[in-house]
Here is the input.
Amino acid sequence: MNMTICVMGILSSLSAGNIFAADNEVQFSLTDNPGRWYDTGTELAGSRSIAVATPGVQVKFSGNSNTVHTRTSVIYPTGAAGMPFNTEPKKGGDNLTLTTPGLYVFTCSIHPYMLGAVIVDDPATTGLDLGSSLSLITGVSFPSSSDLATRLLRTFFITTNPANWQNYASSAPWHIAYPNVDVRVDAGVVNLPNVLNARYGNDLALQPLNNPATPAVGEVWVATQFETTSGKTKAGTVSAINGADWQVRRKVAMPSINMNNPHNMWTDKDQNVIYAAQWFDSKLTVFDRETGELIRNVSVGEAPAHVMTLTNNDHLHITNSGDTRTDSVMELAPLATNVLRRIDIGRGNPHAHWMSHDGATMVTPNIITGDTTQYNFSTDTIDAILPVGNEFSHPVATGMLPDASKYYVANLLDNSIIAVDMETHTIIKHINLLENYDPISGNISGPLGAMPIQSPVSPDGKSMVTANMLSETIIITDTRPGLATTDTVVKMLPCDPGCHGVQYGAKQGGGYYAYVASKFSNSLLVVDPDPNADGDPSDARIAGRVGLFASSATLKDANITGNAGMGGQGILPVPLVYNGWVQNLPASWSNQLTEAQRHPIQ
Here is the structure.
């Protein structure tokens, strides 16, 4: 009893309530609620996703979500009994017992920013035990005092507490609240917030919002996935930014269907509708781009993630990232009027796919099996399934050269991008995004990309922009063929926490912008990948930063009630200017582009 009281004393400054696990049992409810995806019901320093217990704790997971999730131990004490723990996607419950002292962080492999943590503390020691060494599920181990360990801890506390997200609607400095506890690591007992604040700072002034000097053609739609509104029990809006003045023109919440976490979007060949995949549900929503009015809501499968069209017939293809069955890509008729078929890609759980300019090929990253599929529409067969890492590398997104000669796969947990030759179906390069990073000291000697996500290639095939969640960086890769710098990271730019979504759109007068959205921020970064128009992306720069929160002039179908403009993930610039799509634009859009933009490759 005295040892338990000692542990309780360490925690007493964190909450007025008793946050030590009652009866040595932790219950996580897996939800659709932003920041509280793993919800204990008890708050610790603003987070309801962390619990403290003693060895032998019973951890119970229950489902309270509209879709399926895995329960995956992404971080755990090196050598811990019963680790790694990993389940198939499901809505039901799971139980496990944790006996080895240390830090355990759980995620969902389908929605990998869902985080819950348990600190198993030996009450006979001082400080809460994190373990002297921690391991990632990929097999990588590192000291618990290392920069990699503290970066991961910092990311956890940002992710699971909406009050810790960057709010550009406020003039207040960015403050991150950490639990005021002493923790035991390999270097001894240290105060957690002291270490995190010393390494990464706190109460930081946010960069000012500033519009790019050159307007964009059309508008930019952003899945502000965590924004909450009236008339709904589920989070998520889709926000339209006018490229002429960079103001938020419209927010679509769809209270009539309780739209749930819209994640990624696309449009039809005439640019008249928006297709939005509800990632924490099973629906694809179609609405009028100009008015925001609902057209239809179509059932497609578990956790639909990304949607794209074929250039030759405007058929839609939606990846069901929660489906373990191999026929997990849905094909729908134009405007999603009906479901045509399920496409067998040989694997389940695909995420951010890409389609070729000629409508002949689709490539998918298969998140749970650690591989990628190249599918041939001409023959309706699989051309190849290639491993791009181990089963826990988490391939999450793809990008493709505009001539469909090569595609790229971003591995979230392997911290790499894999280049694949589409003719020979062979891996031609492994780009190590941690090459310039010392995980122990934190020294960064060059471009760094940790936990890469969306990585599209520019319409002209000269650059690839990648959003990196852990390092909060944007990296630019030179994708021009036949150069010494081909498939080399040539530039790094700062990003916001939860850096996630990227797409290219047309810049007025020629060239392109790459738009970058972050989950735990309400700003949109506008990147100019080639400011001097010489074709070399090594001088890429941030051209502007635009707020994603509503103004008094913003058109809305519901009132904003929380997380204003937060959760930026999928991005859709209109008009579509990628090779194959841009040639199909109606004259009203095509006439706003330069000749080079209308024909991005010759």
